[in-house]
Amino acid sequence: MDQSIVELNQKIDLLTSQVTYLTEQAGIVERQRQERAELIKDLIPLADQAFELTVEQLEEIKENINLYDLLRIIKRLLRNGHNLEKMLNQLESFSDLVETMSPLADEMFCKVVRTMSDLDQKGYFTIARDIRSKGDEIIDSMSEQEMQSMDISYTGLLKKLREPDTRRGLAMTLRILQVIGGRSPVNKQVTKAENHGCD
Questions:
Q1: What count of Cα atoms within 13 Å lies in the side-chain half-sphere of residue 72?
Q2: Quick one: CA dihedral 103, 109, 112, 114, positive or negative?
């Protein structure tokens, strides 16, 4: 076959491929145009509704705000754009911190619940309720005159200490304080220091 014919066929093939590519691109552009047209068609009713709603809301507040105030607010927002962006960044950072601290907060809450449950099972709350109830009964049973006439001198207090009920109450109080003191971290540190020969 003549060389010129071969070259002509190659050019025709190249031209055909280019026409095919351009046809495909034209089809893609047309489809995108149709999609944009459909999107605009769908958005127009929504935009109309939003505009009508905005007009209705502005009608309700038109007596309380004027155009000058609105423009002044918009200008302030534009002038403080950097500050608003900074504030949003801080809010995002705070949100990240809350998200990071959330597992720790959950763990602390669970520990508090377990501790409260242990205290309840050991009867601490029952004792506290009883003490409060007895205290309320005592206060309610005493008149204001009796409270004012109580002998709070050293002699009067020493007389009270001779009474069996007072001594029983003091003994229970001291026992509770002894148990609390024995379990406190400070007491354990002192004991540990004494065991190591510290003053």
A1: 5
A2: negative
Cα angle: 82, vertex 87, 89; to 5 degrees? 95
Q: What share of the chain is helix, strand, coil (3-state, %, to 5)?
A: 90, 0, 10
pTM over 0.90: no
**From CA 4, how far away is CA 98, in angstroms rounded?**
77
Enumerate the H helices of 62-123 as residue ranges.
Answer: 67-79, 81-121
Cβ atoms of residues 77 and 70 within 8 Å: no
Each residue's pLDDT tens digit in the chain (199 positions)?
Answer: 566 777 777 778 888 888 888 888 888 888 888 888 888 888 888 888 888 888 777 777 666 666 677 777 878 877 877 777 788 788 878 777 777 777 777 788 888 888 888 888 877 778 778 778 877 777 777 777 777 777 788 888 888 888 888 888 888 888 877 877 776 555 555 445 444 444 4
Query: How many Cβ atoms are within 10 Å of 195's Cβ, its own excluded?
Result: 8
